[in-house]
Specification:
The protein is elongated, with a radius of gyration of 21 Å. It is mainly α and 194 residues long. The protein has one domain (46-186). It has helices at residues 7-14, 18-30, 33-44, 47-71, 78-102, 105-122, 133-155, 158-176, 180-186. 77% of the residues lie in helices and 0% in strands. The mean pLDDT is 91. It has nine helices and no strands.
Length: 194
């Protein structure tokens, strides 16, 4: 049950002395790590810190994919499909956390495009036709990432869309020239960007 559903409890909490409310608030915040990160960013950081966060995540993603290219071969084997799926999920998780903390849509879109570019650039053979279930899972997951990235692109200001358009189009067209074409058409994803 949430506090909003229990009017009596909500009223009682609001009537607590300020000192007790502050103690409760601090205790509750300390139990939610994401909330702590969000509050730290909102209350204690500025635009320079945001740039630092963006640079740090940019390097982190590049390093993650650089390590991945040394560990995951660009050959259509079961273990490579699984490993690439894990790698993309890990990278997407880093971007998700960044977006939840900073609410910065532009850098989020940039990172989502980067992931797609690295996936198709480094692992194009993993998107050849395959009957392996691991390949199907990877292709389906990447199609979802493409659809998600297009949604993020569409919400960007037109100036930022212009900045990212060429790289994003190239990645999307590269995916459209693979077996993902059927997955993309199933999802009714439009590959041509304005």
């Amino acid at each position: 049950m949430s506090l909003h559903q229990d009017a009596e409890l909500k009223k009682a909490v609001l009537e607590l002395p300020q000192k007790e409310k502050d103690k409760l608030l601090v205790r509750l915040i300390s139990k939610d790590k994401m909330l702590m990160k969000q509050l730290h960013f909102q209350l204690l950081e500025n635009e320079y810190d945001l740039e630092e966060r963006i640079d740090k995540l940019r390097k982190q993603l590049a390093q993650l994919f650089d390590i991945g290219t040394n560990q995951i071969a660009n050959t259509p084997h079961h273990s490579n499909f699984i490993a690439l799926n894990k790698l993309v999920k890990q990278a997407s998780g880093l971007v998700n956390e960044h977006e939840k903390v900073t609410k910065d849509k532009t850098s989020e879109a940039e990172f989502r495009f980067y992931i797609l570019q690295r996936v198709i650039g480094d692992y194009e053979r993993l998107f050849d036709s395959s009957y392996q279930s691991a390949a199907h899972k990877l292709h389906k997951y990447i199609t979802g990432r493409i659809k998600h990235a297009i949604g993020k692109y569409d919400k960007l200001h037109e100036d930022f869309q212009f900045d990212y358009r060429e790289d994003f189009q190239n990645a999307l067209h590269a995916f459209g020239n693979t077996t993902l074409k059927s997955y993309i058409s199933e999802q009714r994803i439009e590959l041509d960007l304005n």
